[in-house]
Specification:
Helix content is 75%, strand content 3%. Helix 2 (24-51) packs antiparallel against helix 3, helix 4 runs antiparallel to helix 9 and helix 9 (231-259) runs antiparallel to helix 10 (269-291). The chain has one domain: Up-down Bundle (Rhopdopsin 7-helix transmembrane proteins), CATH 1.20.1070.10. The chain is mostly helical.
């Protein structure tokens, strides 16, 4: 019976902004500008990290990967949202929904792990600077990044397979802006307790454990910084760490609210809007946060433009 119900369901309807009668053109313009700037700024970060010798360090290698992830995030969601804003029809096929969920959730898990790796990099740089080049070597950096990507995609594979094993018997309206696990689970007429357990227990390894590692890293970092005699050294250390910490707070706060809590039964405005924080706003803000007070990036950017 489950296979029959699933075969009869050929598409989902993305509700998104359907409750907003006017202003679709303004929303379209806003999302289009956001997408353009997100791709542009993150691409600049990647290019700078590749071509400028001053930025060929583990920190900027990880930042380049973060920028690539941010481009993937927005490309997975915003183009479809733009198409739905211009069209009266906001449907997505069953297979496209599964693919969108799979890739989007892969990037969610990968970024959780990558932010923890970046915290580890800052911990070694500040707390053990003499052994930094030995501990955070090029091979170690590459292995850590590969582990983040593999972990993110394995995490998504489990969630996607189990989500699309559920029966969807009646309503096919997804109360969200794109295919995501919480709104999909609300549509199922089957038992979603296993899916909820997977979100919570796998979330322990893909989100809570990295977050715990980040917190521990910053406890040691702050302790080491406060012991520094040089005021300039303390300011430089806090400057490089404050950018990463800001990104962590923005990203983890919205992810935890979305995934690591019981699935709400009714419609919630927050449940729809908060995912926009980490899927659209955070990728736009990340390059701004990292470059706003970063002298190395500014110098690299000036060199690239020939303005010295």
């Amino acid at each position: 019976m489950k296979a029959q119900n699933q075969s009869e369901l050929t598409e989902f309807i993305i509700l998104g902004f359907k409750n907003i009668q006017e202003g679709h053109f303004l929303l379209f313009s806003g999302f289009l500008i956001t997408y353009i700037f997100t791709v542009m700024w993150n691409t600049f970060i990647i290019i700078l990290a590749m071509v400028d010798q001053r930025l060929r360090t583990p920190m900027y290698f990880f930042l380049g990967n973060l920028s690539f992830l941010d481009i993937c995030y927005t490309t997975t969601t915003i183009p479809q949202m733009l198409a739905h804003l211009l069209s009266e029809k906001s449907s997505i096929s069953y297979m496209r929904c599964a693919l969108q969920l799979y890739f989007f959730f892969s990037f969610v898990g990968t970024e959780c792990l990558l932010l923890a790796v970046m915290a580890f990099d800052r911990y070694v740089a500040i707390c053990n600077p003499l052994r930094y080049s030995l501990i955070v070597s090029r091979n170690i950096c590459l292995q850590l990044v590969i582990a983040c990507w593999v972990g993110g995609f394995l995490n998504s594979t489990v969630h996607t397979v189990f989500a699309f094993q559920l029966p969807f018997c009646g309503d096919n309206h997804i109360d969200a802006f794109y295919c995501d696990i919480p709104p999909l689970l609300k549509l199922s007429c089957g038992d979603i307790s296993l899916n909820q357990m997977l979100l919570l227990f796998i979330g322990l390894f893909i989100a809570w454990t990295p977050l715990f590692c980040i917190i521990v890293s910053y406890v040691y970092i702050i302790s080491s910084v406060l012991k520094m005699c040089s005021t300039e050294g303390r300011q430089k250390a806090f400057s490089t760490c404050s950018s990463h910490l800001t990104v962590v707070l923005l990203y983890y706060g919205s992810c935890i609210f979305t995934y690591l809590r019981p699935i709400p039964t009714g419609s919630s405005v927050n449940a729809k809007l908060i995912p926009l924080m980490y899927s659209i706003l955070t990728p736009l803000l990340n390059p701004i946060i990292y470059t706003l007070r970063n002298k190395d990036v500014k110098k690299a950017w000036q060199s690239l433009l020939g303005i010295i």
